[in-house]
Amino acid sequence: MEIKITKKNIKNIRVSASTEALLVSAPKYMSKKAIMKVVEENEEELLKLVERARSKKYINNIEKGEIYLFGELLKGDTLNYLTDELKVENFYREELKKVLENIFEELREITGLKEKSYTVRKMKSRWGTCYPERGLINLNLNLAKRPIDEIKLVVLHELIHLKHPNHSKDFYSELGRYMGNYKEVQRRLKE
After folding, report:
1. Which domains does the chain have, with CATH numbers?
2. I need a labelling partner for 46 at 20 to 30 A (CA). Which of 71, 96, 160, 179 fits?
3. pLDDT (tens digit per residue) in 21-79
4. In the 8-state DSSP scheme, what is residue 134?
5. Reduced to 3 states, what is the DSSP secondary structure of residue 17?
6. Residue limits of the YgjP-like metallopeptidase domain (predicted)?
């Protein structure tokens, strides 16, 4: 883990975390050795702090002009016209629609499974849902922030529910057949 130390005119050490590093603000008079001793003594709590920061990895900061699209951070000029949340939402909807068409087409071809329709909407606690009896799949708009392989896993997961409505052994066997590394992708999706 990278540690970035900044000396300031303060009395006590302050620690925060970004997704890439531990950010330590220390009094100007404190030696690097003393700072590192404090960091080492509190290593366990500090690692948890970094993990919490990493778990918030795909959170947009519209005021700063930063949003995520397919796992990549977009900044500055690309976003000049995306000034409010509704515009960002519409942008995501359009971009995700383009990607989903290709993903669905590819996965329909290799699995032989086809939904009657799918929709993209804001969802709070799930990446997708499937209604096998109606052939309907709902996908979370926030998938637009995630890398393509994670989106592909969610679509594949929901398509397989058309054949296996529950999470049975057969369901996971089929998931593994079409995406051998699904466990790794699933782990990243849960972060």
Report:
1. 2-55 (no CATH), 85-190 (3.30.2010.10)
2. 71
3. 788 899 999 999 999 998 888 888 888 877 776 666 666 665 666 777 777 777 765 55
4. T
5. strand
6. 85-191
